[in-house]
Structure formats: C-alpha cells, structure tokens
Amino acid sequence: VIEVHEIVVKRLGPVPIIKGDFHYLPKKAKKFIAKWVSIMKPRCLYLCDGSQSEADEIIQKLTERGTLTKLPKYENCYLCRTDPADVARVESKTWIVSQEMYDTVPHLKGGVKGIMGQWMSPQRMQEQMDLRFPGCMSGRTMFVIPFSMGPIGSPLSKVAIQLTDSNYVLLCMRIMTRVSHEVYDVLGDNDFVQCIHSVGLPRPVQRKTINHWPCNPEKIMIAHFPEERRICSFGSGYGGNSLLGKKCFALRIASVIARDEGWLAEHMLLMSIIEPSGRETFVAAAFPSACGKTNLAMLQPTLPGYKTLCVGDDIAWMRFFEDGSLRGINPESGFFGVAPGTNYETNPNAMKTFQKNSIFTNVAETADGGYYWEGMENEVDKTIAITTWLGQPWRIGMPGKSSHPNSRFTAPAGQCPIIHPKWEDPNGVPVSAIIFGGRRPTGVPLVFETFSWEHGIAVGACVKSEATAAAEHSGKQIMHDPMAMRPFMGYNFGHYLKHWLELNRPPHKCPKIFHVNWFRLDDHGEFLWPGFGENIRVLDWIIRRVHGEKDLGVENAIGIVPRKDKFRLDGLKHPIDWDHLFSLPKNYWLDDTTDSRHFLEDMVGNDVPQVIWDELAAQEKRITAL
Ligand code: SAT
Ligand code: MN
C-alpha cells in the first residue's frame, strides 16, 4: 500500500493506492484525480495501465463474486447479467450543461418540449451533482482509466481519463477504447476530457443489489459539460450511460470539439467495398441505434467477386484534409453490438469476432456454457436447456424471450475477420459517400441519391426511424432521429446543421449523400428487400454513382433512384417487387414532408438554416407535381 500524493493527503488524509504509481502521472491528471477523490471518497485507488494481468485480476474477482459467468464454450468469454432496471441508455436523464441555453438547444416556441437534447444550467446541475456525488464511492475502489479515442498519438485522436467504481465498466472500456499508460505520455501538460462515472451506490448500500450489479436507477444522471470537456455520469453501469468514451465523449462532447475545430463527430459506421476490379471505395453510414450499422459494417457480400472491409460500426470522426478529401477514423477499438438477430446467416463476421475475449451482457446461456439469444434458433441444439437473461429456465419454443432486446456483445475490433488493415491508420481512410437511413416500414424507397450536399443534409435532418430498444422508448412509433444524432447531440442542432452546410467550401470535396431503407414492408407485412448480405447490391449502385458511371439512375421527386436495368438483381434467391420497393406514394410523401416541416419548425425553430427550408420547399413542390 502506497500513500497517495500529498495534494490528496492534504484534503482527506491517506487513501491507499492498491495499484500503480501516482507520482508518475502528469500534473493535471493528479489534480483531477485528487479533486474527485476528495468529493467521491473511494476506499482506495486503482491506477489502470491496460495490461493483460490487470484484466485477469479483475475478471477473477468478478467471476468469484458472480457478476461475471465464464462461458466455457469459448476462450476468455463472459456473461454478465445486469440489474433488470439498468438495461439501456436513459435519454430522459441525459443532460447537456452550458452557460447559455441556446448553445445547447434550439430556440423553441413557448411551451414546446424539445427532443433535440436537454439543457440544464450549471447552477442547477451543481445542485443535482451535490445530491449525488459527495461520498458516492464510499467503500468502493476507484479505477483510474487513461484512454485514447483513436490510435494513440494520431492527429485525429483525443485522450481522456475516466474515473469509475465499476470494474465491469473497466473491462468494457478496455475493449471499447485504447486503455494504456502511454496515454499519460501523449497527455503531458495538455488538457484532456474528464470522465467521471459512479454506479451511485456507496457502501453500506441503501438499495438491494440484484445480480451483483450495483446501480441506482432512481438517481441516474448523465451530465455533459462541453465547455469544460467534462462528463459526470451517475447511477447506471450500462453501455452508453457508463462507457463514457462512447456516446458521451466520442459523440456528445466530440461534436462540440469538432464544431470548434472544423470537423465532424458522427454516429456512423465506416467501411470499404472492393469491387471485382479491385477498386476500393469507403463509405460512412448513419442509422439510429439498433438499425443494423454493425450488420452493414461487417456485411458478407452475396455478389461474387465483391469484398467488404470494416473500419468501424458506430462512430466516425471525419475531417477534410488539405487535398480536399474527407478522411475518417473509428475512434473506438471494439464493438458494442446488439446481440438478438445476430447469427451466422445475418452476420457471420460478428459471430467470428466474438468467439474469444468478449463480454455478453443480458443474453441467455445454454447448458453447455454458450451464449444464446433470439435469432440463434437454428444454430444450437433445439432441445438444449437455456437460462434466460433473468435467470429463468427456458427452452426454444417457450413463450417469452431468452434475452433482453438491447442485450449486447462487447468484442475487440481487431478480432473481426474483415477488419480493414488500415483501421488504425493515424490518417484515417478517405470517405467517398455518406449514407443516411432508418427503419421505415412504408413509403421510403430502398435507396436514393440526394441532389446535392445541401439536399443531402436536409434529407439527413429529416431521418426518421421506428423506435428501438437501445433507449427507454417503447412501442413501434416512428421517431424523428435527424442525422441519427438525436440522442447524441452536444450542442444546438440548428448550429450543427449550419456547421455541416459550411463545410461545402474550397478545397473540400464533399461526398455524395444517399438515403437507404432496408425495412420497407409489403401489404402482408413482409420485408420487400432481403437485406443483410444482399445489401451489397445497393452499395454497388452507390459506389458506381460515386465514380461517375453514366445513366445509372432516374430523377424523381426525392432524389435519384436506380434504373432497374442498371441495378444488380441477378442471382437474387427470390424475385423482388421492384415497383413497390421504389414507389413514391404521393400522399405519403406529402404527409411526410409536412411532418418533417413541423418537426423542424417545432424542434429546431429559428435555428434551422434557410438553405434547409429552401430544400424542403423545393422537395414539396416536386412532390406536389407528382
Ligand atoms: O448503449 S449505447 O448507447 O452504447 C448503444 C446505442 O444506443 O447505440
Ligand atoms: Mn450507436
């Protein structure tokens, strides 16, 4: 036991450091840690270095305690069941704090409750913090996690330090981000993003712990301070609430840094498509949570001779370089993917990625020590005994679900069989197309290209999707999710649109923008498009458009759609209803455009840039003329 550095000692007396050497840390890191030790009062400090022995030690502790269950069917894989009250992001308890309200949220008409982010004043937030953080780590170990988003030392990367009292969070952060002592060398005397996380259950506990998963759902609060580059998260141990490198930093805080520095932090996958000729094209695609970004990013093409490679499945940081090209990195180093629906048919590359060194959260377990979830019916012995995510005995065919719909796998990106050799290139990869999309059961064609950068942004601003289980929303309602960023905006969405629009300036070569929808249904409620590996056909059309191949499309009221004879339909297992798949029901689109207009008026108000209104008006005119 070594005693903490004198600044800590002065404030609260000795707090033992059970691992690591405090003296070695940069001054600003020491100060930050000391401050939060004095507020949260942990029993001891554990300075993480990212080594394997560190993971082994934590895993052993968690398996002994019962938080993790080893899945002996695979190598170094574990199952974690959370408290069933802590299973998804909690958007209603997520806040952005800024001095000026309108830096965070748009100007809205009186009485309108906005959905593009929640603002709280620094004063009010301080009151909320004071009700939660003082003493919140009492009796617990505080882990200090130095991490980099993006390859350590890359000009596109950013470093941060997360404090947490959850060892599950530490294990997941080690997969999802680059945890390393080297971060301190990069840091030097510079500032870093400050990430403070507590499960919010000091000892002795006031609330019964379920599944050895401490949390405090009634007091959940995820607060972002973009001006200070700080995140304070309380009460939840789950995913987007607690792995602060992910949505909190890489999207909410980073979107603000990106605005200030002239780049983009987006909720997008990054991948490349290699045609039989060998030509490689990179695309970025933004879909709301749980709409299949991971499946597209790891697509296994059905068209012979095509190959795809994955750079990232959730977040892209992109910047225009001096030669005008847009280049992007995946700031993460792992996948936190939705488990249900994933199988060797829909996403073989994901399945292969998580055969070792992975964590499964809120899935079911088979009697032979494997994972199980909805969608794996054909890949396990159908009679095998299963234990559900709630610990109940269950078998395939019984009522109810084996796994939570937002159950997840957490797996190292480097294990993906089609990970791009350049996925950690400090200069990123060149992005030639941007694709928006969502779950749209009616009206929206399989694919269309927008008419311009400005029209593409307008289309992105009107992205909608069926609600998913990734947050607390329920039911099948269609929700607006502009740019797939609604839950992840760090600043005023109108200013964000302006920022996007202003990027169209010399020498920037703005990529073409497309919209896709794999989820359109026929009159019997069946999907009109097979999706998954067959989506290569859509990507093929997109990249041929990008490279300027002639006569591929026809203009209609919403954009450019494929000419049927120029779209690869050969070899599809089942005939498709092309006319339905691409139809533009006039009344549907009139309603849809009106709905989008109302959404922008109500939720973004005066902050909508005029160019977006112009694009919408032009679209309305084209639809009316149908
Ligand atoms: O829980 S996360 O926010 O990390 C997943 C998602 O909603 O995309
Ligand atoms: Mn996501």
Question: Could you please describe the fold and organization of this structure?
Answer:
The termini are far apart. This protein folds into three domains: 2-65 and 83-261, Phosphoenolpyruvate Carboxykinase, domain 1 (3-Layer(aba) Sandwich), CATH 3.40.449; 265-332 and 421-585, Alpha-Beta Complex (Phosphoenolpyruvate Carboxykinase, domain 3); 335-415, Phosphoenolpyruvate Carboxykinase, domain 2, CATH 2.170.8. By secondary structure, the protein is of the alpha/beta class. 26% of the residues lie in helices and 22% in strands. Strands 1, 2, 3, 6, 7, 8, 9, 10, 11, 12 and 13 form an eleven-stranded mixed beta sheet that branches. Strand 15 (269-274) and strand 16 (280-286) form a beta hairpin. Mean pLDDT is 96; it is low at 8-12. Helix 1 (6-12) runs parallel beside helix 2 and helix 3 (52-65) crosses helix 6 (167-176). The structure holds sulfoacetic acid and manganese (II) ion. Sulfoacetic acid (SAT) is lined by residues 89, 239-240, 246-247, 289, 336, 470. Sulfoacetic acid binds next to helix 8 and helix 9.
List the helices and strands and how they pair.
Elements: E1 2-3, H1 6-12, E2 16-19, H2 27-40, E3 44-47, H3 52-65, E4 68-70, E5 78-80, E6 94-97, H4 101-104, E7 119-120, H5 122-130, E8 141-149, E9 158-164, H6 167-176, E10 178-179, H7 182-187, E11 193-198, E12 221-225, E13 230-234, H8 239-242, H9 245-261, E14 264-266, E15 269-274, E16 280-286, H10 293-297, E17 307-312, E18 316-320, E19 326-329, E20 334-338, H11 348-353, E21 359-361, E22 364-366, E23 371-372, E24 386-387, E25 393-394, E26 408-412, E27 429-430, E28 433-437, E29 447-449, H12 453-461, E30 464-466, E31 478-480, H13 493-502, E32 512-516, H14 536-546, E33 553-555, E34 560-562, H15 578-582, H16 586-603, H17 610-624
Parallel strand pairs: 2-3, 3-8, 5-21, 6-7, 6-12, 9-11, 11-13, 16-28, 28-32
Antiparallel strand pairs: 1-2, 4-5, 8-9, 8-10, 12-13, 14-18, 15-16, 15-17, 18-19, 19-27, 20-26, 21-26, 22-23, 22-24, 24-25, 29-32, 30-31, 33-34
Helix pairs in contact: 1-2, 3-6, 12-17, 16-17
Bound molecules: sulfoacetic acid (SAT) and manganese (II) ion.
Sulfoacetic acid (SAT) binds near residues 240, 246, 289 and 336.
